[in-house]
Design goal:
12 helices, 0% strand, mainly alpha, elongated, single chain
């Protein structure tokens, strides 16, 4: 029974990674599509290739390690992981359907934590004893910090670029920056793959430990990162056009110069947080970066009504995912 459930959990984790790819495709391609540097089809192929390239470069898996330790091992079971994944997949599909660029990362974290806390309650323990509070606080703080860092970085990069190119001919500058967007979007896609694929790697790893296939602290089998990077790349190739529209045009109008700045700022932020092992939201980061380039024109260039709606989605994702997971875990207990 445990073996069957383990296979189901691994399959669902790969499905979640695929959904993460098409849900978050907008993060990598929204600006490059809105500036018409690449067609949507070309853009998703480009992004998917660099999502997968991270498999060959990133080997320390610090973000995966953080995810695996969010719920303390005493409260982790296959059913907890199953409930967390089902809740995360459900919320991701709902937000994708309505074109809401919520965080796949926070959906997964909320689902896993919510199921673990519910298990603690059923065991007669305090729910908060099931989670590593320091990790949750750090992750929650980056709901604010990641987009703010992206915003400030993008603002600074844009100002520097505009200053350097102030005497350049507009047509020539646009040509160069359209080419530059190929590089900056590749950098962002690489950082996106390296950050987001690791979150599912952590879930699969902890499932194998829970099922006693691996001992805690054992080296991660190579098939796990290979499967996760492949899944997120294939998901990116399938697109996510409703969210692309929101990210690429509804927040602010983006030019090739601003696209380069936003993508570079987002990639820098994601690379730094990945090195630190902090599972931040790619969605939040690139949204903050796009706002940052908009602010270099004027405050009114940013459509604040749209931005505020996005922020509400960010705030509610973890608690809603946790509540969904609590309900799913309670149902699973009735039949398990």
């Amino acid at each position: 029974m445990v073996t069957t459930l383990l296979v189901v959990v691994i399959c669902l984790a790969i499905v979640f990674d695929f959904i993460n790819g098409f849900h978050d495709a907008a993060n990598s391609i929204a600006t490059i599509v809105s500036t018409k540097v690449l067609t949507p089809f070309q853009a998703v192929i480009w992004a998917a290739a660099f999502n997968f390239l991270a498999f060959f470069v990133i080997k320390d898996h610090k973000v995966a390690n953080t995810i695996a330790k969010i719920v303390l091992q005493d409260y982790v079971t296959i059913n907890v992981i199953l409930a967390g994944l089902l809740a995360a997949i459900t919320w991701n599909l709902i937000t994708w359907w309505f074109g809401i660029p919520s965080s796949s990362s926070h959906t997964l974290i909320g689902g896993f934590a919510g199921a673990g806390m519910t298990n603690a309650i059923f065991m007669g323990h305090n729910a908060f004893h099931a989670i590593k509070s320091s990790y949750i606080i750090e992750i929650a703080s980056y709901i604010v910090l990641a987009p703010f860092i992206g915003l400030i970085t993008a603002y600074i990069i844009t100002i520097i670029i505009l200053h350097i190119c102030k005497n350049a001919r507009p047509a020539a500058a646009e040509k160069w920056f359209k080419a530059g967007q190929l590089i900056s979007s590749a950098f962002l896609s690489f950082a996106h793959g390296g950050n987001d694929a690791q979150k599912v790697m952590g879930i699969i790893y902890v499932a194998l430990v829970s099922a006693k296939v691996l001992t805690d602290g054992a080296t991660m089998p190579e098939w796990i990162p290979l499967a996760c990077y492949s899944a997120i790349g294939l998901g990116t190739m399938s697109g996510g056009w409703k969210i692309v529209k929101t990210m690429g045009s509804k927040i602010t109008k983006v030019t090739p110069v601003e696209g380069v700045a936003a993508e570079t700022a987002g990639a820098i932020t994601l690379t730094i947080t990945e090195r630190l092992g902090i599972p931040v939201s790619t969605t939040h980061t690139i949204t903050g970066s796009i706002i940052g380039v908009g602010l270099t024109k004027r405050v009114s260039a940013v459509r604040w009504g749209v931005t505020i709606n996005l922020m509400w989605a960010w705030v509610i994702t973890i608690p809603i995912s946790a509540l969904l997971a609590a309900g799913v875990y309670s149902l699973i207990r009735l039949f398990a």
